[in-house]
Amino acid sequence: MGLEHQTKGESVDVFEAVRKRRSIRKFADRPIEGEQLTKILDAARWAPTAGNQQRWRFIVVTSPTLKEMVRKISPGIFSRPAAFVVICSLREEELSHWDESLLLADCAIAAQNMLLAAYALGLGSCIALSFSKIALKEILDIPEHAEPEFIITLGYANEQPQPPPRLPLEEIVFAERYGEGWEP
Amino acid sequence: MGLEHQTKGESVDVFEAVRKRRSIRKFADRPIEGEQLTKILDAARWAPTAGNQQRWRFIVVTSPTLKEMVRKISPGIFSRPAAFVVICSLREEELSHWDESLLLADCAIAAQNMLLAAYALGLGSCIALSFSKIALKEILDIPEHAEPEFIITLGYANEQPQPPPRLPLEEIVFAERYGEGWEP
Prior knowledge:
Low-confidence stretches of chain A: none
CATH topology of chain A: NADH Oxidase
Distance between the termini of chain A: 36 Å
Strand content of chain A: 15-25%
Largest sheet of chain A: 4 strands, antiparallel
Strand order of the largest sheet of chain A: 1-2-4-3
Number of helices of chain A: 6
Structural class of chain A: alpha+beta
CATH class of chain A: Alpha Beta
Order of helices and strands of chain A: HHEHEHEHEHE
Shape of chain A: globular
Number of domains of chain A: 1
Oligomer: homodimer
Mean pLDDT of chain A: 94
Radius of gyration of chain A: 18 Å
CATH architecture of chain A: 3-Layer(aba) Sandwich
């Protein structure tokens, strides 16, 4: 099983990727290539960051032993992806709540670039948010000043989930002021 | 001035959009079409959210008077975009710090979909983070239980900024454990 456009090098339209990307939670027992990882990480690198500060770091985990340890402390990860990428924010100095929010947003923006890039390469992915930060820092030697924000799972999909229903635009978009009807 | 692929309907590759999108801060005095807004908002709608909760709302501001008021309380917005989209998170009940983080991440992920969609449509955009939330809530009648997280500016670009330098992958990516060298 897999996605439709697995032929490498084929161009994938932005709107197709946005619309057809699914969160994949079951992965095939098949590795992914270094070149695919490079492209996905490069997509993260080109994400905008507040003030171009680029205060994120990415840990690629492909070692079976480490993957198993990460999986055990992440209740939301059931299957065994080919790779995890842990996105960390850098917090060298004391940060305000506002600064923490900016860093978290920057990591989330980079994560979305990664999901779209993975889709374009024929790979499945998901953002995992539920994990023990303390345990993850221990397992991956993450220093005090770095904060693991998200785990991205990556691999060949072993499922083709239906899109979860989305609210219609009329319910989530307002015109000019909050609550005022907007017509698409 | 503008972007290279302004011909509507042309397919834009995911990696091109990720790599060539720039934060645009100077806009031409030219409106954007309803259809473009619909496509950009639909891209936000298809962003993944934690537990598919879709707890974001979007306010499209195109009224000149309201735009001017929004601009005045947003120190980071110098030029006059064709539209603002304010992304709000829903906070009906008392939220933990963790829940607030999830909602913020969901809004950031939707924002990135919007920036990429705007690029694919030949439009410029930027995420504005610096604004008075209290004043914005007042101007746009945003209720107590909704929190404006980001303002997205949208319009035809009136500049072609160079890409701000990015750190090389070797500096921001680690293999298996934090700090261990990764080879692209």
